[in-house]
Protein 1
Amino acid sequence: MDIEQRLEQLQKRHTEAELGGGPEKIEAQHKRGKLTARERIQFLLDEDSFVEIDKFVTHRCTDFGMEKQKILGDGVVTGYGRINGRYVYVYAQDFTVFGGSLSGTQSKKICKIFDMAIKNGKPVIGLTDSGGARIQEGVESLGGYAELFYRNTLASGVVPQISVVMGPCAGGAVYSPGITDFIFMVKESSYMFLTGPDVIKTVTHEEVTKEDLGGAVTHSTKSGVCHFATDDEKSCLLLIRELLSYIPANNLDDLPIVKNNDPVNRTEPRLRTIIPENPRQPYDVREIIELIVDENYFFEIHKDFAQNIVVGFARMNGRTVGIVANQPKFLAGCLDNNASVKSARFVRFCDAFNIPIVTLVDVPGFLPGVEQEYGGIIRHGAKLLYAYAEATVPKVTVILRKAYGGAYCVMSSKQLRADINLAYPSSEIAVMGPDGAVAIVFKNQLTDAADKDAVKKKLVDEYTEAFATPYKAAELGYVDEIIFPEETRFKVIQALEMLKNKRDKVPPKKHGNIPL
């Protein structure tokens, strides 16, 4: 065979591999409104930057006639490329080949990508579209999943991991995305669940659709499994590109810096009036976030889950910060089980990848109720407390209005190693609100009073004047500075610049035992 024939043979193999399951199955994928694995990668990565690895790999199964059904690539496309000029590793399951089912060989391809990513310190993006384990391979396929879960665990906190569910993801397959940092889903075309509707109907006699059980809306609003739910695949892939612009390539790299013309000392008079004088009146904390960050742009994460707390990324003086803020628009900004878990996971991600944390506090306490107590609010609230206490990144806290009780402690208080704690003049830092405090402290006086309402009002007013302020906390050094609201942006950036070279550590240990 001469060189021309060899080159022709190579080209033939490339063409064969790129066809996956063949034209008919590609057409069927398109009819479902879905892109193919290679089309997704091409759209996600910078133009002409993708380098494919293991393109000609095939499975090794010889049972059930599988030795006669070998397709180059074996149902997953793996390789590396660039997003906004920065390298990433990527794998995309190909539903046109055996329904994207995971084989032992497919697992090895994906694990190779993870090993390279960990060694080279680059993010991993997994595009999932699979019917699950390849049944013909039995335990080899299950072992392949376990190998993948192990790589997910090794990579956790070392390189960012992003899972993109663009079709089915069922059974054990869900645990790989479950370990990763961020999960994206597409509405009405992707779903995740451990046991499907048919099994549930057989075992529990409950009837539920795939969409209601494990669709993008369900997981982005009810379970919190999914961080982003988009309307279509292309908008999903574009959102991934945006997310990556905020985060470093690994746990040792510097944060990306994006220059802008937003003045560091920009003042915002509107911050004086956004927070209502009535402490029981709600407002949207996003307005405050957008006024203090660069170019008024906030990239929110987990937007539709646990809406009583807001988390996401922004830039301040060009550098990425993670923002955690109580949201008075929902449940008065109380911390509940879901909000605690949502924010704790975000804080731990920021700490793992050296992203400074800015916390905006307006919290009346933990949400009371039997459901919350039975649901483990002690354990879940402790997760957030643990996350803040353990975090060694720069931490700047701004108390906007209420900071009551244990929730004050949990929300990045000075005692949890927050570096700089600021407060608005209108903030209230206390064990509880004035009404509750007066009812306890002056119980006997109120019982004996002839006009209880008048006496209580007088005592509440006096208590509010003396104690429902930030000045007691400032006297104790629990608040470093009481600031004018319009100067919030400048004060926070000043603190972050001062903390840029912060060094902190936790006592030597194998690892802590966070109350999972």
Protein 2
Amino acid sequence: MRAARLALIGLLGLAGCSNSGDDGRGRTILFVSLDSVRADALTFDDPLATPNLTALAESGTVFTSAFSGSSWTLPGHASMFTGMPPSLHGVEYDDIALDPAHTTLPEVLSEAGWFTAGWWTGWFLAGEYGFARGFDQYTNAMTGGAQLEASYAGALERGDTSGAGAALGMRDVASHQDITSPNVLAGFERTVTRIEPERDLFLFVHLFDPHYDYIPPAPFDTQFDPDYTGPLDGRGFFTDPRIFDASKQPPRQIGDRDLDHVRALYQGEIAYTEAQVARMFDVLDQAGRLDDALIVVTSDHGEEFFEHGNRGHRQSLYDEVLHVPLLVRAPGATAAGSRDDTLVGLQDLLPTVVEFAGLEPPTSSVGRSLLPATRSEPLADEPQLGSLLQYDPAQGHLLVDSLRTRERKLIRYLGVGDDRRLHLLTELTFELASDPGEASPRRSLVGNRDDPLWATMEAELGQLRTQYAALGPAPREDRQTRIADLFASELGDLGYSDGADAGASPGLALPWPPGPRPPVAPAREQ
């Protein structure tokens, strides 16, 4: 019945709904971020797996070639909030917050009089990173989140770093080993029902449940693999030695049948979470806000299931972690039910939302609005940059960047030399038409600088360096958080560690401030 209701809303929207608020009701924006959902796991066209979002897609536009700029939560969401790729906003280490000079999406809307409310369920969305800016209400929706936040703040005030670290550890364990979407739903309903009908309302929901551990409640735990009788139950995906053991060769220990079951549990988490999103649609419907709402559904990054030898994310820049789902449902859209394969990125979401609100994006944003596609207006492909910073105690800083076009992809592995310049370690080039799984790269140790991909990447990064300088970046001390120092030991257990020891935040050792990296030095003699 809910799916039928959503389809009917789509038909009504085509009949002439607008975002003008002419009926006296305020405008509504619902921005949904489903953590760790890869594009092939949420296609918006499977009524058995995701019936509600599939029905909603009948009145929206699905962007089938949408990409994140990184493979983990913090930089992905920073792109959504700032309209910048990670290589510009620079939020790429655990202890770096959003630049105070970069106006965020909630700030744009709040300054225009919108009531802004957000709920987060994974610690990389904490207010300490700057995501709370511009929100009238920004809520930690993890179970016991308020108490953990108070414990963390109190420990910091006392100078008790071990106590603060313990509080953060408890907070992150709660997100990985708990089901938190109902907490978001409860707060969502309370907020929507108390806001005046004439008030413009922006609602951001971050739903962590699709992230490992994969523990969907019944019946979603068996929906996609009812006949499984093996030993794995989806818990400890990143730490279970039956899945991955770095001391063995090969490290992958899980067999194909068990891996199929783990992926079925992951799919079950997505199905469960989209059912919770549908209940949010019901809340908006009961408040008279659903029909005319702008709805955006996406993810911050994907997930690896050993396609390239890795599990989880924050390991690489292959498409399984960069290609994300994206649905934009705009009221009155003429392209309702369409699928658009234009290359787009998460940095395009801020301009999309502010155009709906009738506002201008901040000058710091470099994305472009996707609303023209919902009006049957063509969009041009834009090459998509990827960026990932890692730290290894033996090798120091390791930087991975990528550039993706429709036909080809370049991935570069870079190191920082004794001269404090970037040097190419390895370059991989993929021909995506014949190798969509990125299985057969052309490799180079010196780089093919005559390749148009290399030239395009350097040109894109050069433009970002110019933009960064023009913005007047804030001093590093204004962007520093204490999270990496407090939380280093727990990070490794949960799959987030970049290898730095406690008390030695890797960000502090970067030879340049957060933001675009310097050009790659000329190739060394081999």
